[in-house]
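Holo prediction — zinc ion.
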Amino acid sequence: MAVPKHKVSKQRTHTRSANWKICKPTLTVCPKCGEMIPPHTVCKHCGYYKGDSVVQIKQEKKD
Ligand SMILES: [Zn+2]
């Protein structure tokens, strides 16, 4: 097992951590229903991908 040769200083750790930023998820507009969805995924609102219905979306039950 590889063993670190030197202790990583607090400053080095903190400097590395300072470059880790929160980023917004990439979203695109579904051409079928207009909802915001991640790219290259089946739309969970309408079940369409690349203009074809690939997943049947269940209708929510109303009490
Ligand atoms: Zn959609």
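READOUT: The chain has a mean pLDDT of 89.
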